[in-house]
Design a protein that fits this description.
single chain; Rossmann fold; 8 helices; 7-stranded parallel beta sheet; globular; alpha/beta
Length: 255
């Protein structure tokens, strides 16, 4: 499909970190952005202002993406905004990015912790995407955010990494089943990134940061700015023949 000024992306978890960078990089390419935030409205409003300063349409809606029951009312809000701002209830790109971290040894992980991770990283993505399909334009794109931890194993990440592996398989099913609508579905899998994710472990813990750098071919931990451009590329016309693929953006971590 051709990306135009009227194209709209929906990003879950767009108020900070990777999601914020994705939103800004998409806006730089002439794409309007709707994004969700969980609790920090002030940060969300800042990102809306940044997108509008780039000349693009923007809106932020509160949504806990682990709560499937909220998806219907959320998409009614999205539909109303789209019809008002663009004259159509449809959008072009869905980026499933929202998530939380869990660092817990396999043997110590509780059922409640496990359920929380699965609800936001797999069940939520599954049913939010399902709910989005009637509004997603034919020829659109779905990009699911995974993790390097779905490829390599690190102690403490069994639940999180396994849920991301489930998302990678789901993405291949989406690519297959949505092919008749010309909707491409792909995975972007970041490596370890310096954000506040997981309490800022990679960013703020010098020992962890040094370890990540030592096992990464390009010699450093990742930054949010390393990821957003790849997502924006996958929403471009140049990426139209990429489908059902996993693209790891990790600087060559754990090769």
């Amino acid at each position: 499909m051709t990306t135009t000024k009227s194209s709209i992306a929906l990003i879950t978890g767009g108020s900070r970190g990777l999601g914020r960078d994705m939103a800004l990089r998409l806006a730089e390419k002439g794409i309007g952005v709707i994004f969700t935030y969980n609790s920090n409205k002030a940060k969300a409003d800042e990102v809306v202002a940044e997108i509008r300063a780039l000349g693009q349409k923007a809106a932020a809606f509160q949504l806990d993406t682990s709560k499937v029951k909220n998806f219907g009312p959320f998409f009614e809000q999205v539909k109303t905004w789209l019809e008002t701002e663009t004259g159509s209830p449809h959008f072009d790109f869905l980026i499933n990015n929202a998530g939380t971290a869990l660092h817990s040894p396999f043997g110590a992980t509780t059922e409640e912790q496990f359920d929380a991770i699965v609800d936001i990283h797999f069940k939520g993505v599954y049913f939010l995407t399902q709910e989005a399909l009637p509004l997603l334009n034919d020829g659109g794109r779905i990009i699911n955010i995974s993790s390097g931890l779905a490829r390599f194993a690190m102690p403490g990440s069994a639940a999180y990494g396994s849920s991301k592996a489930a998302i990678e398989m789901l993405t291949r099913y989406l690519a297959k089943e949505l092919g008749p609508r010309r909707i491409a579905a792909n995975v972007v899998a970041p490596g370890a990134i310096e954000t506040d994710f997981g309490g800022g472990r990679v960013r703020d813990n010098k020992e962890i940061n040094n370890h990540v750098a030592s096992v990464t071919a390009l010699g450093r931990a990742g930054l949010p700015e390393d990821i957003g451009g790849v997502v924006a590329f996958l929403c471009s016309e140049d990426a139209g023949w990429i489908n059902g693929q996993r693209i790891e953006v990790s600087g060559g971590m754990m090769l």
